[in-house]
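Predict the holo structure. Ligand: arginine.
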Amino acid sequence: MKNKIIDLLDQTIEELDKEKIADILEIPPKEDMGDFAFPCFQLAKVFRKAPNMIAQEIAEKIPQSENLSKVAAMGPYVNFYVNKEIYVKEVLNKIGSDYGASDEGNGKTICIDYSSPNVAKNFHVGHLRTTIIGNSLYHIFDKLGYKVERINHLGDWGTQFGKLIVAYKKWGSKEAVEEKGIPELLELYVRFHKEAEKDDSLNDQAREWFVKMEQGDKEALEIWEWFKDISLIEYKRIYKILNVDFDHYTGESFYRDKTAAVVQELKEKGLLEESEGAKIVNLEKYDMAPCLVTKKDGSSIYATRDLAAIFYRKNTYHFDKCIYVTGLEQKLHFAQVFKVVELMGYEWAKDQLIHVPYGLVSLEGGKLSTRNGNIIYAEDILKESVSKIREIIAEKNPDLKDKEDVAQKVGIGAIIFNDLYNQRIKDVTFTWEKIHSFDGETGPYVQYTYARAASVLRKTGISEVGEIDASLITDDTSVALLKEIERFPEVVKTAAQRLEPSVVSRYVMAVAQAFNRFYHENQCNVEDENLMKARVKLVLIAKQVIKDALDLLGIQCPEQM
Ligand code: ARG
């Protein structure tokens, strides 16, 4: 419809080209102002006339068209009222089973580096955000036809493992680690730091153990591998709860034999400088602190391994884009690393390496139940959310079928939705009441809307509708709902362009709200069979688009709530 109106305007106004017209054409804020509005301010200069008069003239000159029921000037605007019946038909025709999908990404590969917790440390709320955002970006790019490589860049290498081995050998036991897992490893790590304050020789021992690891010492690597396995069990439990997956668990340790080549190349290209025994790349010219490449003792660091990872991924996956989802505090790190790659002569670093930062998350009032001191485990938050929803179900709908499954989907959905509802760079604070509310801007509200649509369909007993009489669903709330549904493909593209799942979450909220308005105005279970079919058709596609949009966020929806 928009294109048809642009065509009509183009025929009428010689002074503007199509692109310009498309640019100016607006969607008016109120229903009674029509479906599209063309503001005439910009033409005032060209015609040397008041915009109101220009609007009047254009409205009179627009050729008759079956697609429009009315064209009228309103102040400085030309308002277009589309023929609703034709519009409804047109939208219904467009919407197939894979509405929203596209082939724009065919033949292109995107690497997404997300989640990436640090072995032997707790998976905290920040890691929850990277996991949720990264997973949503995966679904969004997948929908657009890209090949996506989901990479978990585990923090599984570095001097901290030397410390952990020392602590384990001194104060740990196999049983305690097996039984308690990460909290025990964390405790050993904390103890190491306390004791090392009194006894500096512990630090030397830790360094020695890490050197052993780097040299491939069997005992050192066995203990390290075991810590890693223990940690992965816990992380994978969380991924299962969140329904998140990875194609590669290639952590920092994966690059330990790949850093030397990068350091060598940096040296050959004359980029390395000495600084107090360490090797750095000077980035003063770019207003950045130097990028540390190797430490005094020659060992690699976080940045070195990220450099090696970039070249490995480029050569292995041939990515068109490599995206990193981490907290904002790593902004400088990625800016430095990307700059170094560019300075090495790889022009693609400029637009193919992308850091996707996000803000902090916290609970209002700070009351999160924790296992252990003030350390917050993401898993506890997820479980708490589910258990609170379980209580709500027990109170409000104790006879619900598949109660436990619903509690899982809604409890987890509430957390994910809240996480993705605002621009990712914004900090997230929440209260349980707010994110679990069934009538706010929440996951449960959208899921409830979905279940409501499912229930309408169950009541009518219809699960498929062929041709319908479009003239039966031209009322305001039906058309408003269709307008929202129609936007889906644009929404997916915009979300991908901006690397911003909130574009999708805002959208699905708008669809749910439009659906509920439609639902209150239009009874579906009516005598008139044609009318029932027409309305059910709308319910079916609304239900489908809500499901597809929630899928993009990584949220599952129960059929009954
Ligand atoms: N392990 C890091 C952390 O927990 C995140 C790693 C992000 N990815 C990367 N390639 N540096 O903060």
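The mean pLDDT is 95. The chain is about 55% helix and 10% strand.
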